[in-house]
TrEMBL record:
InterPro entries: CheW (IPR039315), CheW-like_dom_sf (IPR036061), CheW-lke_dom (IPR002545). SUPFAM superfamilies: CheW-like (SSF50341). One of its GO terms (cellular component) is cytosol. Residues 2-143 form the CheW-like domain. This is Purine-binding chemotaxis protein. The lineage of its organism: Bacteria, Thermotogati, Thermotogota, Thermotogae, Thermotogales. One of its GO terms (biological process) is chemotaxis. SMART domains: CheW.
Length: 151
């Protein structure tokens, strides 16, 4: 089994998302804040007439916030379950790579940071990449709360 992924950086770590879930990558755009939303909800943007909520992955994963958001990127993903889109604010986007199944390990049971969000860990020659399960980054009730605010 092969998995084609988009890699990105968050703090000191490298992450990846299944390329089939990615709608587009765009430069940082100032967001409109949402009232009564969680601190990791950066706000919303207008993307070609569509309202897209932006999730600050640094805050969601309890990392230190961005020093300069102007340098960050937004990865717009599309959820399989309902076709809705959401943006993930990340430090930088790196590349698209193909991972063979033998390079991907299951997430260890004991891992702490966001382990429930991970599909696995890719081990390459000189780097390890945490593979995100975008469907699980937000819990169902968190997705609903955001959807209800932007309706």
């Amino acid at each position: 089994m092969e998995l084609k992924v988009l890699t990105f950086v968050l703090g000191d770590e490298e992450f990846a998302i299944d390329i089939m879930k990615v709608d587009r990558v765009k430069e940082y755009e100032k967001t409109t804040k949402l009232p009564n939303s969680k601190d990791y909800v950066e706000g919303i943007i207008n993307l070609m007439g569509e309202v897209i909520p932006i999730i600050n992955l640094r805050k969601k994963f309890m990392l230190e916030d961005f020093e300069d958001k102007e340098k960050s990127k937004i990865i717009v993903i599309r959820f399989e379950e309902n076709g809705k889109k959401m943006g993930f604010l990340v430090d930088d986007v790196k590349e698209v790579i193909t991972l063979s199944g033998d390079k991907i390990d299951q997430t260890p049971e004991y891992s702490g940071l966001s382990a429930e969000f991970l599909l696995g860990i890719a081990k390459l020659e000189n780097r390890m990449i945490l593979i995100l399960d975008v469907e699980k980054v937000l819990k169902k009730e968190e997705k609903l709360a955001i959807e209800n605010i932007i309706k």
